[in-house]
Amino acid sequence: FAGERDCSEAVSTAEMQTCANKRYHEADAELNQVYRQLIARLSAQRKGQLKASQQAWLAFRDKNAAFAAGVAEGGTMASLVEVTELTAMTRSRTEQLRTFLKQ
Questions:
Q1: Are 15 and 1 in contact (CB under 8 A)?
Q2: Which of 33, 38, 39, 103 has its CA 20 to 30 A from that of 8?
Q3: Contact 21/83 with Cβ under 8 angstroms?
Q4: CA dihedral of residues 19, 24, 26, 31 (deg, nearest 10)
């Protein structure tokens, strides 16, 4: 279940988890790319601000995703809910950083 076509046909929790993990890793790689582009353009002071902001955001993202997974606490879907939330928040942060790139 590595390709998008295969993921559209995912049925089992394990298949859905594999696909969700793939989407998350892609989103995370894109976030890191945009972050590197942005930090390369900033002054030393602004770089420090961005690094602190990003560290705080990462901690929030992870805790928020764990909280979201609580809706399925103890169930097989908990990790799927968590990684889905991680992906959504990571994509949102990527778009936020892109707006800073345009300024």
A1: yes
A2: 33
A3: yes
A4: 170
